[in-house]
Amino acid sequence: MNAKKIIFPGIAMIAVCYTLGRYSFGLFLPEISASLSLSTTDAGWISSVMYIAYCLALLTAPFLIHKWGHYQVIRLSGISVVVGIAGVALAPNTLILTISLFFAGLSTGWISPALGNAASTELPVADRDRGNVWINSGTSFGMVLSGPIALLFTEYWRLSYGLFAIIALITLYWNSKNIPHRHPIASSTKDQHQFQLFQPHSLALCVGSLLIGSSSAIYWTFSRSFLTVEQGLSYTTAIWFWIVMGISGMIAGSSGKWINRLGLSASYRLGMFMMSIGIIVLIIPSVGFNFASAILFGISFIFLSCICIVWSTRVYTKQPSMGISLSFLMIGAGQFVGALIAGNVIDLFSYSVGFVIFAGLGLVGLLIKIKTNTTA
Q1: What is the pTM of this model?
Q2: What is the pLDDT of residues 319-333, one digit of tens each?
């Protein structure tokens, strides 16, 4: 199997589901809030709804992949994100906006395990870690794409989401044509017995993933609002902040060799330290420090996501989709709680207090020690 036929459309689908469908809500939040009269608390609740959808999809993903195969689940993800993005573009009120973002959130919970399973079963063993890491870096490619679109349409966020919907439809077609369509093989009694949620060393995976999600939630949802509301950055500068964060995350696409060289445990602690520094540096009232924060956060978050995928496939050697689903479920749970708490903390205290608290939470990750079920 040609690795490019899995990796390139996979990168595009991750970009569409995660960035265009989910994280772009934070990019366009000031304009959406002004148009639909959303408060900071409303925005936190809507973000939490996306995370609920994400978690629900992750709970069902291993079983859907087991029953239908990864091809059908990839298509399901694509359909869900097209519906969600188009709904946002047309949303006349908060209710329709929330429902649309729920559909977009579902796509992210299905796509990572499905593409992870495709890479783990379709690619040669030597290419699997590299393939998974590159596919996961699609979030950054999506950020680099969405930023210029936001600049082009300025405050016309509905037009931006309309273009996102067209891109999502094209990406769905691309994946449908390239990802191998194989019917899942009927499971034996032994295979069904092995289809288990918890494995040795899975607790550390869950806790580590939860910390990534909870500590990063405030940045994804409120960083741009903080820069424009509190620090007075112009619209154009704030969009360039987003683009720089995406470009920085693309660097993590080549992190597979570093994960192997440093080891998973050291890589995870390095990533959590970098992300925490990136979060706290944002509150320094300087454009230079703002962009330094974007670089640190962009690299570290994608790096940590890649670590979780490699970590998951090594703990769940026979059930890669189960491991990825569990890890990303914990990231989503952390982001759900984190976004909800962040909005209320900002309303009660200030943006700066919120970012300091969540940076401190990320430093807790330095205590995590990683073991896997393989010697890799």
Answers
A1: 0.80
A2: 777 888 888 889 888
